[in-house]
């Protein structure tokens, strides 16, 4: 089986696990993330607009004391850019149905909340397969320090995410039940 096939199968399994966790979600699932972000007051944060069964990081984004951006897809094979967001921003549909602010300044994040399908204790994540966050993290890390926080339901953890050389690791993983620094 090729790595592409292995990842495709892993994604199908991960979607099912995440869907079940989403169905059992609680309104306080993001409390740990809000606590973690309190350590980053004043830093530029990038979150995401949750889609389908992604865990909701918006309450933590709204509580952040500092600039907040959300990802904008500029095209296949390109890194993400981040448009400034606030809770009352006028949102429009962007690529793949993710909502983005209709207008706003571009911001460069120092801290990113990264969505995912599955994660492992090494800090690797399985995303949707477009490589957007991997390219983005690689570019941001080349410029200076950046903290990538994986945010997920605990049920999304797997023993080992299939990885390739371009996959960027996470610096911290936050679930509704714990916060941990990956072991590499």
UniProtKB/TrEMBL annotation:
<keyword id="KW-0547">Nucleotide-binding</keyword>
<dbReference type="InterPro" id="IPR024185">
    <property type="entry name" value="FTHF_cligase-like_sf"/>
</dbReference>
<dbReference type="InterPro" id="IPR037171">
    <property type="entry name" value="NagB/RpiA_transferase-like"/>
</dbReference>
<protein>
    <recommendedName>
        <fullName>5-formyltetrahydrofolate cyclo-ligase</fullName>
        <ecNumber>6.3.3.2</ecNumber>
    </recommendedName>
</protein>
<keyword id="KW-0436">Ligase</keyword>
<dbReference type="Pfam" id="PF01812">
    <property type="entry name" value="5-FTHF_cyc-lig"/>
</dbReference>
<keyword id="KW-0479">Metal-binding</keyword>
<dbReference type="InterPro" id="IPR002698">
    <property type="entry name" value="FTHF_cligase"/>
</dbReference>
<keyword id="KW-0460">Magnesium</keyword>
<comment type="similarity">
    <text>Belongs to the 5-formyltetrahydrofolate cyclo-ligase family.</text>
</comment>
<dbReference type="GO" id="GO:0030272">
    <property type="term" value="F:5-formyltetrahydrofolate cyclo-ligase activity"/>
</dbReference>
<keyword id="KW-0067">ATP-binding</keyword>
